[in-house]
Write a structure and sequence with these properties.
about 290 residues, alpha/beta, Trna Endonuclease, Chain: A, domain 1, 2 domains, four-stranded mixed sheet, two-stranded antiparallel ribbon, about 50% helix
């Protein structure tokens, strides 16, 4: 049981209510909240013992902090603080809560924590090194176009890993589970995205799309999928695949427009996920989202 009292827990509840309001925890959906605890603690936050005071994300977090040892509670609060800082930075505004850092420091001080990380006072536009890295990725995708099919496929997977890492998404190379191949994965806002990447002459049809969705159904419920087909998708594949799946799609035109217009990859994924959640459509082009 942690050293936090009801006043501390109320402070935490207010600090993590940004930006969605009371009962929420930061930007987390149910799936990414589950993934956060699984990733950080190998823990299922949906267990009944964490629902003893309520089922909302805020109530489950409060129950977890009440039951955890001080060191574990401290780890959770430090991780949540990093997520909160990133969320505030993304809004481009000052922190909406008065003296948020001082209030947070007072809470974690009881758990033995030190001074939390703070954002830079004023972050400039992307550094020249970042711009150079994106320019190098544009050159690389042009180079890959001229390769023969087999080396082109391997080079495409390496390119995508470099792309994900350029945005700090902790990419993982292709791996094989029993009876299946996954082309890689990355993490964004606590959600794990499994990757299927194809660069072939013909557009991707429904058989490949449904096969990848089948792989995804066998994974944890918080896993999502990104199917990236450089040659696009067939109209029949789009129609047969249907709606309301856990997979979003990108094609070569999406990839080029993203790089050419300097749109961050993580923002592209966020907008595709949001549109899929709102409309059920797994494939909405970058040109229509931005």
């Amino acid at each position: 049981m942690s050293s936090l009292d009801s006043f501390d827990l109320d402070e935490i509840a207010e600090l993590v209510s940004f930006p969605r309001g009371h009962g929420y925890v930061l930007h987390f959906s149910d799936a990414t909240f589950t993934a956060f605890f699984q990733s950080e603690f190998k823990l299922d936050i949906n267990q009944e013992r964490f629902r003893n005071i309520g089922a909302s994300k805020g109530k489950r977090l409060r129950s977890f902090l009440m039951q955890a040892k001080d060191a574990t509670a401290l780890r959770a609060l430090e991780a949540l603080w990093r997520h909160r800082l990133a969320q505030v930075r993304r809004t481009g505004q000052t922190d909406p809560l008065s003296e948020a850092e001082a209030r947070y420091q007072a809470v974690i001080g009881k758990l033995g924590g030190g001074k939390p990380a703070s954002p830079p006072p004023s972050e400039p536009a992307p550094a020249a090194a970042d711009a150079a890295r994106i320019a190098a990725l544009k050159d690389e995708i042009v180079r890959i176009t001229g390769l023969d099919p087999q080396p082109r496929g391997f080079a495409f997977e390496t390119f995508l890993k470099d792309l994900f890492n350029a945005y700090g998404l902790r990419a993982r190379e292709a791996f094989r589970n029993r009876g299946e191949q996954i082309d890689g994965s990355f993490m964004l806002h606590g959600a794990i995205y499994l990757l299927e990447a194809k660069w072939q002459n013909a557009p991707t049809g429904s058989a490949d799309l449904n096969a990848f969705e089948g792989k995804l159904r066998n994974k944890a419920e918080w896993a999502r999928g990104l199917f990236l087909s450089q040659s696009g998708f067939t109209p029949d594949g789009l129609a047969a695949f249907g709606r309301a799946k856990r997979t979003i799609w990108m094609d070569g035109l999406d990839l080029w427009e993203m790089l050419n217009r300097s749109i961050p990859f993580d923002e592209v994924v966020e907008q595709k996920v949001r549109r899929a959640a709102e409309s059920g459509e797994p494939f909405v082009r970058v040109r229509d989202l931005f």
